[in-house]
Specification:
Strand order of the largest sheet: 3-2-1-4-5
Oligomer: single chain
CATH topology of the largest domain: Rossmann fold
Strand content: 5-15%
CATH architecture of the largest domain: 3-Layer(aba) Sandwich
Helix content: 40-55%
Number of helices: 41
Number of domains: 7
Radius of gyration: 32 Å
CATH class of the largest domain: Alpha Beta
Shape: globular
Length: 1138
């Protein structure tokens, strides 16, 4: 049935050799292939060509056209021609092709020919992927794969070739596969490792081929299209592109999408065929083609040179094609000046340029006037937001302000060797080069503040945090750029309450005390600085209003290019604003119109970051303005945009508006961006021609409260995080009146569900926990009318605060939007009448957590040495049941007795006198404790002959409470919160007292440190102001382990976890410097990550641990931890017991 059904969709073909009359030519100049289609006036196919472009679209097209001219009979005449694709501009200029058309339109025209009324098109080529959604005959949305081409057809070809097979043979093997290998949907690098692992495990070629085909489609559906509900695919689906000639890829699509698709018999040349249809459609009777004829092609010659533009600071690398007739075509330019053209759009507003100049065009004091010397400020991240403030402040205080140079590739390369995390965003990576630039300028005092909160602009927003990278990157610089310490440069990176004027004055007075500045002078300078910051914001807003008036008066279109403040850096945006101008549209920034928008609240997401609050306000404004469209800039690796992109899209879609996002990184090949922007313009024009009217669509999530009546009837599903602890917490909640069920601990199927329903740029923990809940709801095991779900919510600056919004979107997309969601949080973010923290519940929950920490501690300490295999697990299971039973009464006397008895019996368990290296396990809280997330790392460590040492879960609660102390002393925290934190610590330590005393009485077990001691250890390396996610606590746990003789550490984090860029990977170099002999490995976990790679890195670390067992005895190391690099003289003594 499959093969017969797909043999139907074929185009009518005619013999070219006997044809007479007008014909129409379509050329698709792809990135790797050249395609040509020639049709008659009725759309019948006369001639086709498909071949590699061999690195030159122009040469390959000339070769193909010469062959076509040779075959054409005398009475056949090319009446009109169209070129599309990657090389469209070059071919149109060189060969005088009549029409140039964006490839998305060409593909749509071809699909419409085969399937009138088509509403969904998926095109997968060798290196790119396009998805078009069509509504009412107009392209509604366009999605393309981003900078990386993994997951497309070329990967299948390459892998087939590596096995000595043709792609046809390789695909045929897949159709008979019985057990397709699950290879994920992530990067090809990860997939390669997974394939190798599958081969070692005996998977057949067919199973691997089928697995790869599934991966290509998973990548398309869940990463590119981000499909959540299969209904979104529509009913009339056309698939095309050379990859779909592979029957196994086509079959995978139909199975995963539960849809029957149309695959035309010319799937690989649909772009060329669509271009030919456009040539026919736009042909005017009696006109002649301008396309070079056979004789002209024979005479045609060209040469290509590469040169730098030099007309502006972008200094674009230009490819200049010079043709024999004296004309030329230039590519690689970001604006029309680079193309050698007079800039006909130079009068169009470009607020990116305006804002860049406005924010930095301040004249510093002359050196003779700078009574307090020079201060260097790096042109990075939050400085793009607050430079007017800092410049004014330091100028008023008598400093000459020296700004680092404009960003450039050369500047970026100066700092590249000091970047500790390869997956941090490009704006973060650039910071290293800017600091090096200031050092090279001879600056002796560099000021780069850590700002946790900006001033709140949207009064109804939930919070006003900065991004974790923006907040904490100064710490990464301090610990990774050695030259700062070596040259004795004063590098100040204070945490400052910019959102609290009076607190800021006090903090600056203390931080700058070495300069002997009076508090009155600080106060006056701060007031002046705030006034200048406000003036800057007003100027940007006025520029936005002026631009709106201009485009309305001229009848033009404008693009709100919405991003972060630092996206105005030309090195980061790669000339996208100029590209938009070249398309005849004005460019506005998000903050130039955000003040005009009114956000309809509540939003589905927690509106927690200031820069993103502007995005929502700008989107709300654009959604109702016909002359504006919004394009969102998204830095590759930005975890926060997993939250914001979906929300901005929802705001726009509510008003039938088009959503476009451009993902950017250090690469400046903007082919995909150009396609998106040209396609957007084409769609706007098509809508205008058709008189498209904006319609209000109700797609908002409606929160359902968990009521007291529900408490009596509902089963509450909770995702697993830590099996040892959560089995006890489950019992604590049940005994307190909640029918709570913790889901399975090992569940790989949940990851697949998570990938379907969670933005794939979200972190691994979000994908796992939401996948668990949706999988459970789909299982049929629960009465959906009497089921609720619960998820924790931290309320901090990490995106974990927004897991609840991911969950709500996932539930809605999966058809479970009527299932109530309970937020488990300690900060009063959401209230439900049916759920309350009672004294009874808190008592049981704290006991459960202490029991969990205790059982984990004693089990992991003893199991690697047990004389009788399995005895430790048996003893653990016995006491886990006793602990659960004790939670019924939850009496303190029994609680203490059980703790003492657990320690006593594990103390008496027979063990060997083997000496094994100890391996500490730290990291992001879910990845650290969840065996599915970390691939059962404890068992891996034990299997490799080492002992796993994992700090307890209760410590995280203590860290959260302790942070309130710092916020009150140094930031904008309240006295009430400080007292609450102190009380919380006292209560938790009251419960932990029996636990710590019992362990202290034993010589076998580790005694957990107090949170004060962990904070003291952390502060030897990192500021306690870092409180996003695990924050300083992650570093503190590593220091605690090192000081207890555990020098070997696995630092586990979700791939691209923002806080861990700082306090995990960002601190490793400094930890190794301060604590010689420390052996740390950072392991990233992700749905597509290679387990083989993870395992090999862990094995290598443990191998080093064995080698170092007798190497390190006592070391004395001076700690380097001050904002001004003055030596504190503190000495740490360490003894290793291995």
């Amino acid at each position: 049935e499959f093969k017969s059904r797909h043999s139907i969709s074929s185009v009518r073909k005619r013999e070219l050799s006997t044809f007479e009359g007008e014909c129409f030519l379509g050329i698709d100049a792809g990135s790797t292939t050249t395609k040509i289609a020639l049709i008659d006036g009725e759309g019948a196919l006369l001639y086709t060509y498909y071949g590699s472009n061999e690195g030159s679209p122009l040469k390959s097209t000339i070769k193909a056209l010469k062959e076509l001219y040779r075959l054409m009979p005398q009475k056949a005449r090319i009446a009109n021609s169209t070129v599309t694709g990657y090389g469209e501009g070059l071919l149109k200029a060189a060969l005088n092709v009549d029409i140039g058309e964006i490839e998305t339109i060409s593909h749509y025209k071809a699909a419409e020919f085969f399937c009138p009324g088509v509403d969904f098109i998926l095109d997968i080529g060798g290196q790119d992927m396009k998805c078009l959604k069509i509504k009412d005959g107009v392209i509604e949305s366009i999605m393309l794969n981003e900078a990386c081409s993994s997951g497309c057809g070329s990967f299948l070809d390459t892998f087939a070739s590596s096995l000595g097979m043709s792609i046809k043979e390789f695909a045929a093997e897949a159709l008979t596969a019985e057990n397709p290998v699950d290879l994920g949907s992530r990067c090809t690098v990860f997939m390669n490792s997974k394939v190798k692992q599958a081969q070692k495990e005996g998977a057949s070629i067919g199973d691997i081929s089928a697995g790869l085909s599934y991966s290509v489609i998973k990548n398309a559906l869940f990463k590119v299209i981000k499909i959540r509900n299969l209904q979104e695919l529509g009913e009339k689906i056309v698939v095309q592109g050379g990859t779909f000639y592979n029957d196994s890829v086509l079959r995978s699509f139909e199975l995963l999408s539960d849809r029957k698709a149309i695959r035309p018999d010319i799937a690989g040349i649909m772009g060329a065929f669509g271009a030919a249809l456009i040539a026919r459609e736009r042909y005017e009777e009696g006109s002649s083609t301008s396309l070079l004829g056979e004789h002209q092609l024979n005479e045609f010659n060209f040469k290509t040179v590469v040169s730098r533009c030099g007309l502006c600071s972008n200094n674009c690398l230009l490819t200049i094609n010079k043709f024999g007739n004296g004309q030329s075509f230039i590519s690689g330019n970001r604006c029309e000046r680079g193309a050698g053209k007079t800039n006909e759009h130079n009068d169009l507003p470009n607020l990116y340029n305006y804002k860049y100049n406005r924010v930095f065009n301040y004249k510093p004091l002359d050196s003779s006037q700078a009574r307090r010397g020079t201060v260097g400020i790096p042109r990075v991240l939050n400085i793009y937001e607050n430079y007017p403030f800092w410049f004014t402040l330091f100028t008023e205080l008598g400093f000459r302000v020296e700004l680092s140079d404009r960003s450039s590739n050369k500047l970026y390369e100066k700092g590249i060797e000091t970047i500790p995390s390869e997956s941090v965003c490009y704006p973060g990576k650039l910071v290293h080069g800017h600091i090096m630039n200031l050092v090279e300028k001879g600056i002796r005092f560099i000021f780069y503040p850590s700002i946790t909160h900006e001033q709140k602009e949207q009064k109804k927003a939930d919070n006003h945090y900065n991004c974790p990278i923006v907040v904490s990157y100064p710490e990464v610089i301090k610990n990774n750029i050695d030259v700062l310490r070596e040259k004795g440069i004063l590098f100040m990176k204070p945490f400052l309450p910019l959102d609290n004027e009076e607190r800021l004055i006090d903090r600056l007075h203390k931080e700058l005390k070495m300069f002997k500045i009076s508090k009155m002078e600080i106060r006056e300078s701060v007031y002046t600085a705030y006034a200048e910051q406000e003036a800057f914001k007003r100027d940007i807003q006025k520029a936005g209003e002026d631009t709106l008036n201009y485009i309305r008066a001229k009848g033009l279109k404008g693009i709100v290019l919405a991003g972060r403040p630092y996206h105005i850096d030309p090195q980061i945006n790669h000339g996208i604003p100029e590209m938009i101008n070249s398309l005849g549209m004005a460019v506005l920034t998000e903050d130039s119109v955000a003040h005009l928008g009114r956000v309809e609240r509540p939003l589905r997401v927690v509106d927690q970051w200031v820069y993103h609050s502007r995005l929502y306000a700008a989107a709300s404004f654009v959604a109702k303005q016909r002359e504006l469209e919004l394009v969102q800039l998204n830095s590759f690796g930005c975890g926060l945009d997993a939250v914001t992109t979906d929300q901005v899209q929802e705001i726009l879609n509510e008003n039938s508006r088009i959503y476009t996002t451009l993902k950017i990184d250090e690469g400046n090949n903007l082919g995909a961006a150009r396609i998106r922007l040209r396609s957007l313009k084409a769609t706007i024009m098509e809508r205008d021609r058709n008189g498209f009217e904006l319609k209000r669509i109700d797609n908002r999530y409606k929160r359902i409260e968990f009521t007291e009546e529900m408490r009596k009837k509902h089963t509450i599903l909770v995702p697993q995080m830590s099996p040892i602890h959560f089995q006890l917490l489950e019992e604590a909640f049940r005994q307190s009146g909640y029918n709570l069920e913790v889901l399975a601990s090992i569940d790989n199927g949940a990851v697949d569900e998570g990938l379907k329903y969670v933005n794939n740029d979200a972190c691994y923990p979000a994908i796992i926990v939401i996948g668990q809940l949706i999988e459970a709801l789909k299982s049929g095991k629960y009465d959906l009318n009497n089921t609720s779900v619960m998820i924790s919510q931290t309320g901090g600056g990490c995106r974990a605060t927004n897991y609840i919004s991911f969950l709500r979107k996932g539930l809605k997309d999966a058809g479970f939007e009527k299932v109530p969601v309970i937020s488990l949080n300690a900060v009063g973010m959401e209230k439900n009448s049916g759920f309350k923290f009672t004294a009874e519940l808190l008592n049981r929950a704290l006991m459960a957590l202490i029991y969990g920490d205790l059982l984990m501690n004693v089990l992991y300490r003893v199991r690697p040495y047990e004389r009788i295999k399995g005895s430790a697990d048996m003893l653990y299971e016995k006491w886990a049941e006793i602990c659960k039973e004790s939670l019924k009464c939850a009496g303190r006397k029994a609680f203490k007795q059980i703790i003492r008895q657990v320690v006593k019996e594990f103390d008496e368990l027979e063990i060997t006198n083997q000496v094994k290296p100890k391996v500490g396990l730290v990291g992001e809280i879910l990845v650290k404790f969840h065996p599915t997330a970390n691939n059962d790392v404890v068992r891996i460590v034990e299997a490799e002959g080492a002992e796993a040492v994992m700090p307890g879960l209760t410590d995280f609660l203590l860290y959260s409470a302790y942070g309130l102390e710092y916020k009150y002393k140094y930031l904008s925290g309240s006295k009430k919160s400080q007292i609450f934190g102190r009380v919380a610590i006292m209560i938790i330590e009251f419960y932990r007292k029996a636990y710590r005393e019992a362990l202290s009485a034993s010589k076998r077990f580790y005694v957990p440190e107090t949170i004060e001691k962990i904070a003291e250890g952390a502060s030897s390396v990192v500021s306690l102001g870092h409180q996003t996610g695990e924050g300083w606590f992650l570093t503190g746990e590593m220091v605690e382990l090192i000081n207890n003789g555990v020098r070997n550490i696995i630092c586990m984090q979700p791939f691209a976890c923002l806080p861990n860029h700082v306090t995990g990977k960002g601190m490793m170099k400094e930890l190794k410097r301060v604590y010689p002999g420390t052996n740390i490995v950072a392991i990233d976990y992700d749905p597509g990550a290679s387990e083989v790679n993870q395992l090999n890195r862990i094995k290598l670390m443990i191998s080093t641990a064995f080698e170092n067992m007798d190497k390190y005895e006592t070391h004395k190391v001076k700690s380097y931890v001050t904002t001004d690099y003055r030596k504190m003289g503190s000495t740490l003594s360490m003894r290793t017991k291995l």
